[in-house]
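Work through this:
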Amino acid sequence: MTKFVRLLLGLCFGMLLLPAAGAADAREYVLGSGDIIRVTVFQNPDLTVETRVTENGSITYPLIGGVAVGGLTLPATEKLIADKLRDGGFVLKPQVNVLLLQIRGNQVSVLGMVNRPGRYPIEIANTRVTDMLATAGGASVSGADIVTLVGTRNDKPFRAEIDIPALFQPEGINADIPVMGGDILYIHRAPVFYIYGEVNRPGSYRLERGMTVMQALAQGGGITLRGTDKRLKLHRRNAAGAVEAIEPDMSMTLQSDDVVYVRESLF
């Protein structure tokens, strides 16, 4: 996860170096309920309006009344208002500008083991999972490598589990899917294992991928002078929920919530 955090910080830094691109992308932002916009018409100051997009995705504009702008980009909204002003005979050649003042409609909740949990707006088009995680400060030290995305797509419930480190492997970027307003990103606590008995640092530790019993012993500071690696016990909960005692070898791969016990040497 440390490498991942560094990559996310690099992503944030890279975004700061591209303000012009960010400004261009903002024009592709899709309006949603709660957003506040300012509409101006060139040489028609009486038509300048600051308004909020209602829950049904519309605004009320002088002369033309209700305008459905929910789900439209800013350029599409400008064209729609201009067409209505021209077709209604109110302005001959309207030059309409729409400025986004506050983003409230399209927000994503980032929860769980992240450094800054909260609700964050989708400020540019094509914002992806990694963008939102970077906004929330990345996963915390105790966060898992998997982020769960819950939302709706095509009016149907949608759920996806995304392997964060794998995103930075070849072809992994395909899993970095775009987020939508109302989505929830959740990072669970990282899996742990427990080690006690004749080890120098007994306790609970983060379970890394593919971690073996030998690596777990090293994580626990190694075996004490009184202990032995010949009499290890591993306690693991099976599918039925019962705890089984296993005598593992050093190359055995650990699972979440495994308990390793190092016994005292008989001699």
